[in-house]
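Quick one, C-alpha cells below. Sequence please?
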C-alpha cells in the first residue's frame, strides 16, 4: 500500500514537470522543448578515435584504416587524443559515399 502511494506521487511529480515544461513555451511555439535540447547535446558530442567504429558500424581495424587514408576527416586534437565531432563525421561519411 505504501509503495502504491510512492508511485502515485512519482507519477504526479513527472506530470507536473512535463506540464510546466510545456507551459514555458505556451506563447512561443518556436521555442525549444526538452527533446530539442537533447538532440543539440547529441550534435555537440565528440567521439574518441577508439570508438569511431561504433558510430560508423564497421570493424575497428577498418575504422583505423579509414582515418589513416583520409586525413581530411573533421577531427579535433586535444592533448594528443583525437576526437571526431559526431554529426560532422557522419556527414563526411555520407559525402564520401556519394
Amino acid at each position: 500500500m505504501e509503495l502504491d502511494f510512492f508511485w502515485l506521487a512519482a507519477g504526479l511529480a513527472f506530470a507536473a514537470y512535463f506540464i510546466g515544461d510545456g507551459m514555458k513555451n505556451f506563447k512561443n511555439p518556436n521555442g525549444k522543448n526538452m527533446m530539442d535540447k537533447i538532440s543539440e547535446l547529441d550534435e555537440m558530442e565528440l567521439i574518441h578515435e577508439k570508438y569511431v567504429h561504433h558510430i560508423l558500424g564497421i570493424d575497428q581495424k577498418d575504422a583505423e584504416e579509414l582515418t589513416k587514408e583520409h586525413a581530411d576527416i573533421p577531427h579535433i586534437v586535444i592533448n594528443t587524443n583525437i576526437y571526431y565531432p559526431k554529426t560532422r563525421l557522419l556527414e563526411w561519411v555520407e559525402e564520401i559515399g556519394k
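The first helix runs from residue 2 to 24. Residues 9 and 28 are 30 Å apart (CA to CA).
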